[in-house]
Amino acid sequence: MPEVVPAGGTAAFRSGQSRSPVSEEQEGASSFSSAAFRFGVANLAEKVQRRITRMLTAPESWRIGYRRLGGPSILETASVPETGYTWLPDDGRRFLADPFLIEHRGRTWLFCEEFPYATQTGIISVCEIGADGLAGPMRPVLETGTHLSYPYIFAQGDEIWMIPESSAARDVVLYRATDFPFCWQAERKLLDGIAVADATPIMHEERLWLFASLIDQPGGSSWDALGLFHAPNLFGDFTAHPLNPVLIDAASARPAGRMYRQGSNLMRLSQDCRARYGAATTVAVIDRLDPEGYAQTVTHRIAPPPIWKAAGLHTIDVGGGFEAIDVISRRPPVS
User: Fold this and answer.
1) φ and ψ of 243, to 5 deg
2) Phi, psi of 301 (to 5 degrees)
3) Residue limits of the Glucosamine inositolphosphorylceramide transferase 1 N-terminal domain (predicted)?
4) Scanning 159, 207, 209, 252, which has the fewest C-beta atoms within 10 Å of its C-beta?
């Protein structure tokens, strides 16, 4: 073994300081104990440094999970199962949020917001969920230079359309797939000169309605004021509801995914932002939706299971035989 010099040992002796004579056995024991102590301190320091590094490089971020549906979705049960989800990989350089699913020609695709930390600007990306339930590589499909998120995707006629959030540009733009799923062309602006978040369309009583969170409200935020806009169809002129904002409520204003029908009821997903942005998803029955009025009744709240230690869940979608959600946490939830 190489010679180990204990702190304050030989170096101190050579500098003229006195010390008591010791035997060779005592000298060796002292050297070994000192070396072990220094090793322990160094090992503890390394562990602390690794923990600090993990905390700095793995910040709280949004993550997307999905599962194959062999039974009811969480929209039907109002409860998130603790296990069964596959979580898209997180390389620490970006987060993924706002999942939307679509089946096209027998294949299932998951669209989402991809937010690289380096650019601080969201883009729209997509991956395929194969027949084996495994997700393919994530690929960017739409970048505009301004922040994009919430890629609401849907089929109408023979075309596939997408309405991503572009509130930073103060517009709502309709895109058409020219070569699905990777190539998109801007077709028209549905709204212009107004900042709204998470525009969500629904056809109701021969009118196309656009639900969105109003960002420009004085003294408000981007999640507590609901605005409505309507048009005869996707290519008609949209009119703002005269009562905008039709709802002011941090618990159920901002959209959280695709609207759907449950029996004769029109159901709406929204974010519960009372505790924090995107803390949970609320489900409401729409009681009234017409050019003169709006009313809804919240029926239940969907939150991540406590075992996940996740701080929020703010988008839910179902399509192609799968269910997708996003949660915010420092690490992937249990699977």
Assistant:
1) -95, 5
2) -125, 135
3) 94-296
4) 159
